[in-house]
């Protein structure tokens, strides 16, 4: 089918970049993506090492390594392995979950502002978790299931309100409305409960990594292991969906199935992450876009978005702990403050682009 | 050839008694149509007559409410989605190019139905993309941002993407709309080139009847969801057909350049008189003479 035209120019070299070909595998290697992912990995490791040394009890890098390998003093081991490591791990896995979820939603909605926090999904997750805390008494499993259900219901409601892919402002306005309603509902739920539950719920609602430990890490890590491969496998199809339903279907993409599967993946990631540490703002919004800037790709880039999310949340937590020490800001407050500025900048840019 | 006549019953792409509807609105009811193999078929008709709906139905974008679409003698829905995409490509009316995508990356996406998770850029893929870009003359633009191209160049790039699918059937929904006349001719010449090899069947929805007559080997004229006439333009296009399809009075003369039928609408006064006469004859306006 190549036709006659082709033969005359068939020796043109396409600027494809490096290509890997074995008998069974053939891939185009996007050099900048690979570099970007490696850089993000290095940044994550450096940040994690920093986070392990910082704190009221200052440690050198050597002491941290010593504690990790079991040669340090008991106090050092307790601080590093018992206190700081789980906190760092929570930040990394929750940030990664939010980054991937953000990439999924933004590419599903074909809109950079369609992140779970702006659209109210995160608040919805909190509502679900609170309902489970107030009505059933909570417990990690109940909170997680509640958060996932809350996210799903919110996602479906928002989708019904929006009716398909839409421009930035309408999306933000719907998000503001949904967020307001759900925030009011959350307050109502807290007021209805006894004092101790209310205090616990309120501190969770701020979005903090304080006091989080291995059970939370494990829950989110399991979700990542199960869901990220699905997101990665679906990302090419999501890429194609970005060209319109008819184009995607014409290329053989199962449009509806791709939408449902990736939506569920995103919902589950947000639900699990929120159940673990409470609502964290703006990581899901900013991570995919910043990742795309680093890798120079047009598509969702799940892996890069996840790494960027992990870096952002860990950085937010380190800043929150050390910026005004001994006063500690919750990670959620930090990401909201930084993310807020990012959002203002983003909106100004979208506005200038006339969207 | 009259409306009931279906040429080429063994055609690779055909529809039997299809009813195509969006939600509650039925656009096409119980329609039979076959796309002659190896033809450059052009679908024409007034706005909202169902041209695009027919094309979308043939390309399995809409599931028929009744009847069936057959691709290579099998109901189209019985194929896997990628399998259809290896036999039939569709360029819809307004595709969206992702922000910042390069021409090469966009064209390469046309290879999706031939690829798998591990096989994403085989030698065949590369050759198909190279051929498609050469055939549409966009090779030099390979590294350019699609968003920065002119309308005509962009349409060439999109055609290159569906070409890279390497399908024997190629469906184009209004490929010339929103382009100025030079780019319209450019795209139509490209279509004629793509058709010239004889291995490819092209179906396009067009607005301009004169262009349709120049380029089509097979014309399908539609009105209100029905096929009014189909066949080679030279055999079916006359003043009566144009009036029946578009409701305008005109003369049909041979195109001074190509000899194909050329529609010259009657002057304003004559058309007004005809309209009034028609209204007097048929006050409810139920006939095919509604005003255009």
TrEMBL record, chain B:
InterPro entries recorded: AAA+_ATPase (IPR003593), ABC_transporter-like_ATP-bd (IPR003439), ABC_transporter-like_CS (IPR017871), P-loop_NTPase (IPR027417), Siderophore_ABC-ATPase (IPR051535)
Topological relation to the membrane, as annotated: Peripheral membrane protein
Pfam families xref list: ABC_tran
Region (Disordered): 272-292
Keyword terms, alphabetized: ATP-binding, Cell membrane, Ion transport, Iron, Iron transport, Membrane, Nucleotide-binding, Transport
Principal cellular location given in the protein's record: membrane
Keyword ATP-binding: yes
Domain ABC transporter, residue spans: 13-249
GO MF annotation: an example: ATP binding
Entry-linked CDD domains: ABC_Iron-Siderophores_B12_Hemin
Subcellular location: Cell membrane
PANTHER family, alphabetized: IRON(3+)-HYDROXAMATE IMPORT ATP-BINDING PROTEIN FHUC
Official protein name in the record: ABC transporter ATP-binding protein
């Amino acid at each position: 089918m190549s036709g006659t035209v082709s033969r005359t120019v068939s020796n043109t070299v396409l600027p494809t970049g490096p290509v890997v070909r074995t008998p069974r595998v053939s891939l185009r290697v996007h050099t900048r993506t690979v570099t970007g992912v490696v850089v993000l990995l290095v940044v994550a490791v450096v940040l994690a090492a920093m986070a392990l040394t910082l704190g009221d009890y200052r440690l050198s890098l050597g002491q941290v390594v010593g504690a990790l390998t079991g040669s340090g003093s008991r106090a050092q081991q307790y601080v590093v392995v018992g206190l700081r490591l789980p906190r760092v791990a929570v930040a990394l896995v929750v940030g990664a979950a939010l980054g991937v979820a953000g990439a999924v939603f933004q590419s599903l909605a074909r809109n950079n502002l369609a992140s779970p926090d702006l659209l109210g999904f995160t608040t919805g997750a909190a509502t679900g978790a609170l309902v489970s805390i107030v009505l059933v008494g909570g417990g990690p499993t109940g909170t997680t299931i509640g958060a996932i259900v809350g996210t799903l219901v919110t996602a479906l409601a928002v989708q019904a309100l929006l009716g398909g892919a839409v421009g930035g402002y309408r999306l933000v306005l719907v998000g503001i409305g949904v967020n307001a309603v759900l925030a009011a509902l959350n307050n109502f739920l807290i007021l209805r409960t006894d004092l101790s539950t209310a205090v616990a719920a309120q501190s969770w609602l701020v979005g903090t990594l304080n006091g989080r430990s291995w059970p939370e890490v494990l829950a989110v890590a399991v979700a990542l292991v199960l869901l990220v491969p699905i997101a990665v496998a679906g990302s090419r199809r999501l890429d194609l969906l970005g060209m319109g339903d008819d184009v995607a279907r014409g290329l053989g993409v199962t449009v509806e199935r791709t939408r449902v599967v990736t939506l569920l993946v995103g919902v589950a990631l947000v639900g699990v992450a929120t159940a673990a540490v409470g609502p964290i703002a703006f990581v899901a919004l900013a991570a995919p876009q910043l990742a795309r800037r680093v890798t120079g790709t047009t598509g969702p880039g799940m892996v890069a978005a996840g790494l960027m999310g992990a870096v952002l949340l860990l950085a937010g937590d380190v800043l929150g702990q050390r910026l005004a020490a001994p006063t500690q800001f919750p990670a959620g407050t930090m990401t909201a403050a930084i993310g807020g500025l990012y959002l203002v900048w983003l909106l100004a840019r979208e506005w200038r682009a006339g969207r | 050839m009259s409306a009931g006549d279906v040429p080429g019953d063994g055609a690779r792409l055909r529809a039997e008694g299809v009813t195509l509807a969006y939600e509650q609105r039925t656009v096409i009811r119980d329609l039979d149509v076959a796309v002659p193999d190896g033809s450059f078929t052009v679908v024409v008709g007034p706005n909202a007559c169902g041209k695009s709906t027919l094309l979308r139905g043939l390309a399995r974008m809409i599931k028929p409410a009744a009847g069936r679409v057959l691709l290579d003698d099998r109901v189209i829905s019985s194929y896997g989605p990628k399998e259809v995409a290896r036999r039939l490509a569709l360029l819809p009316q307004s595709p969206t190019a992702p922000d910042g995508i390069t021409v090469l990356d966009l064209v390469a996406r046309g290879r999706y139905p031939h690829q798998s998770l591990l096989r994403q850029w085989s030698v065949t893929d590369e050759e198909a993309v190279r051929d498609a870009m050469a055939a549409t003359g966009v090779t030099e633009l390979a590294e350019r941002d699609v968003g920065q191209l002119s309308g005509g160049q962009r349409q060439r790039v999109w055609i290159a993407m569906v070409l890279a699918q390497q399908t024997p059937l190629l469906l184009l929904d209004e490929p010339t709309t929103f382009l100025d006349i030079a780019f319209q001719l450019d795209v139509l010449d490209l279509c004629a080139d793509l058709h010239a090899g004889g291995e490819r069947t092209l179906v396009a929805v067009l607005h301009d009847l004169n262009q349709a007559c120049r380029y089509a080997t097979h014309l399908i004229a539609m009105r209100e969801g029905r096929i009014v006439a189909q066949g080679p333009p030279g055999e079916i296009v006359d003043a009566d057909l144009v009036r029946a399809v578009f409701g305008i009075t005109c003369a049909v003369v041979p195109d001074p350049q190509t000899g194909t039928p050329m529609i010259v609408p009657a002057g304003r006064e004559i058309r007004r008189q005809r309209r009034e006469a028609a209204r007097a004859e048929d006050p409810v306006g139920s006939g095919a003479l509604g005003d255009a």
